[in-house]
Amino acid sequence: MRDGQHYYRGRLAPSPTGYLHLGHARTFRIAAERARAAGGRLVLRNDDLDATRFHMGYSQAILEDLRWLGLTWDEGPDVGGPNAPYNQSERGPIYRAALEKLHASGLIYPCERSRRDVIDAAAAPHEGGPADEPIYPARFRPPPDAPLPPLGEKVSVNWRLRVPDGAVLSFVDGNCGLQEAVANRDFGDFPVWRKDDCPSYQLACAVDDAAMGITEVVRGADLIRSTFRQLLVFRALGLPEPGFYHCPLMAGPDGERLAKRHDALSLRTLRAQGMTPDEIIAKYLS
Ligand code: GLU
Question: Which ligand 1 atom is nearest residue 226's CA?
């Protein structure tokens, strides 16, 4: 306990893009177990930022499926708590304040390039690299001293964070050990706000993890590179950084990482086939 709060605060942060599959279930069970073992608290945050991609029905289904599997949480959209709201779609003003702070600090810039432009340009030698998204070419950046246009009440252009060229970022992952990445080699300038006036995942996630007092982020290893981006967001905003614990990804029967196409391994499907939570845990999650 610290300041009347539990010292360990973890979170489950599902995106309502579909039904939960076994990979999510395993990660969320690890997150819940780490919070329990530390005598801490667990927050459920609904990452429903992107209204165009999400169907609200999935938010409800995800909570139901997690409860069915036996998970509980101390704060969340269905139980409330001191850090409400827990739906990202209701936290717009919090993200906007963070964007304004980044704008005032001059660490971001507007970017008119399309995704296609970036992909085509990044295909040139030395600008690709083993990244999850192409590295934003340095020559597309405005000069660092170029005056920034105002954000405008409604944002209609992408805003990117300028990463510190060549900076070596590192963190010690609770599961995977020391992780290192070099800014502008392993990942480049990334969006913090989109032209449809929606914050990016990187911005919203870092802002919320700090605002909700999260001390350890447990999530899939596919997000390790995003962790480096989020470290830069924490630093740019002067926010406290949590610890990280990245879980190995689960493979489907085809050996590929589990994804939405593996419908057969959704909790809904397994449940409809008559499996109990205990059977699912014993067969797939232990
Ligand atoms: N909501 C994001 C997702 O489901 C992950 C968030 C996170 O754990 O940082 O991919």
Answer: 9
